[in-house]
Hints:
Keywords: Isoprene biosynthesis, Magnesium, Metal-binding, Transferase. By secondary structure, the chain is mainly α.
Amino acid sequence: xxxxxxxxxxxxxxxxxxxxxxxxxxxxxxxxxxxxxxxxxxxxxxxxxxxxxxxxxxxxxxxxxxxxxxxxxxxxxxxxxxxxxxxxxxxxxxxxxxxxxxxxxxxxxxxxxxxxxxxxxxxxxxxxxxxxxxxxxxxxxxxxxxxxxxxxxxxxxxxxxxxxxxxxxxxxxxxxxxxxxxxxxxxxxxxxxxxxxxxxxxxxxxxxxxxxxxxxxxxxxxxxxxxxxxxxxxxxxxxxxxxxxxxxxxxxxxxxxxxxxxxxxxxxxxxxxxxxxxxxxxxxxxxxxxxxxxxxxxxxxxxxxxxxxxxxxxxxxxxxxxxxxxxxxxxxxxxxxxxxxxxxxxxxxxxxxxxxxxxxxxxxxxxxxxxxxxxxxxxxxxxxxxxxxxx
Length: 391
């Protein structure tokens, strides 16, 4: 075994160990890169064997680990057999599988680093501490990752999308701070920690949310690079729309009005969820697509995709509220039941709610069918993750 070598496939990095073939070291240069298909090709003139044959020879292959192909000694007979088998098939391709956990870990870290730098502690200290307390409290960063993934899908990159990705998380954090207030949902726990108003008081919590809302737009305008002013203005308009009376605010108002009302139907429940939850997820995806230079047709397909996963997110949230504990959720469980809130399980039952979630996931994936499958993999996996999340 020799030292490891690193090869890049687009934004992916794979590390392969040096092979020991017939008693001599062979470097990973024997592997031919096909960047257009994000695949590795195994050429017959080089002493590297295919993944299929590696399995036959009991050789382990682990993409996304520091050792992808184990060292091995091939006998003379195996070597000759390999050459004969490759005569009619000189090049064999294998697609490297997409690793969603690695992707989320890398993107999540990038988002967290950017958020950490976006707001520093300065005068007035208390308000900045309150903003950072909730913004940096953790979470899965689904919305900013959706923004980045959509941007990359249509040809953009992470750096281009990052200021808007951070802005989306600031808006999301604002909505959580305000939702938790005694005059709204009156919650004591968020992301496993005391809610903002429990730590800083109701007055500062309101102002922290307001400050995050304003700063989100400032951050987009000041920090976005390499995007035309026309697209930046379009991004700002899209984000404003998903917050106001066509988005979060509208959903929250109707949600509050519906508390304790026994006759609320599915149509009104869908209105609440599409505006209160799906709107910001939709905005995250659409903003990423705009920044990446997507066509209007591509933007609309991604809008429909995002609306499906946004509604899916809330349906799953409703199910988890009645099936998980507060410790598992990191927030107060059973709250919807205690306040007699309209939810999908309440109106159609748990099983029908799960069936509806499955349909939404399928509908979302269908919207991505015309995009490059490798580039769409993060969004497809994110939809699956939302559908199957446990907290």
